[in-house]
Each structure stands twice: as C-alpha cells, then as structure tokens.
Design brief:
There is one protein chain. This protein is mainly alpha-helical. 72% of the residues lie in helices and 0% in strands. Helix 2 runs antiparallel to helix 3. The protein starts with a helix and ends with a helix.
C-alpha cells in the first residue's frame, strides 16, 4: 500500500484549463430543405467524380486505379446513405400520417 502512495506522489497530473466557449448565432439558419439539397449535391458530386475517374482509367489517361476504386466506393457508400435517409424520412412521414387518423 505504501508503494501505491509513493507512486501517486511521483505522478504529475497537468492542470486542465477550462476553455471559454462562445455562442455563435447565425442570422440565416439553414433550413431542412437546404440541408437535404446540399447533401444531394454532395452525393451527385461523388457520383460524377467516380464516373470521371473510371473514364480516365478506361481511356488510359490515368493509371491510378487505387484512387478510382476509392472514389467509386465513396460514391457507392454516399448513395446507400442517401437511400437509407430517404427510407427513414418516408417511414417518419407515414408514422405521422397514421397518428393523424
């Protein structure tokens, strides 16, 4: 037990300073529609980038197959995420409709 107390005295614990937080107020809050629109634009951009990368590989303009495959996988995952979000939104809408009946 004395050994543990001796070790505790040797350990130096740095002081954690509290950081000041500031509240940022936006004049124009982003609407839900804008958020969905931005997300759809990002998914579309990922799809176009993947298509362009594959086209460059096929035409011989690029030999970076690893990067092209990564872009294709990113586009696939973003599209799947978009579908899952759509499904959840539809389920939520249907549940709200059931509650109103």
């Amino acid at each position: 037990m004395n050994e543990i107390k001796g070790i505790q005295n040797q350990i130096i614990i740095p002081e954690i300073k509290q950081q000041e937080t500031t509240v940022v107020k936006k004049d124009d809050p982003i609407s839900f529609g804008d958020t969905i629109s931005n997300f759809l634009d990002a998914v579309n951009t990922a799809q176009v980038d993947a298509k362009d990368s594959v086209s460059e590989i096929v035409t011989g303009e690029s030999e970076n197959l690893h990067e092209a495959m990564a872009k294709v996988e990113e586009a696939k995952l973003s599209f799947e995420l978009m579908l899952e979000i759509r499904n959840k939104l539809l389920q939520s809408f249907q549940e709200i409709q059931r509650m109103q009946v």
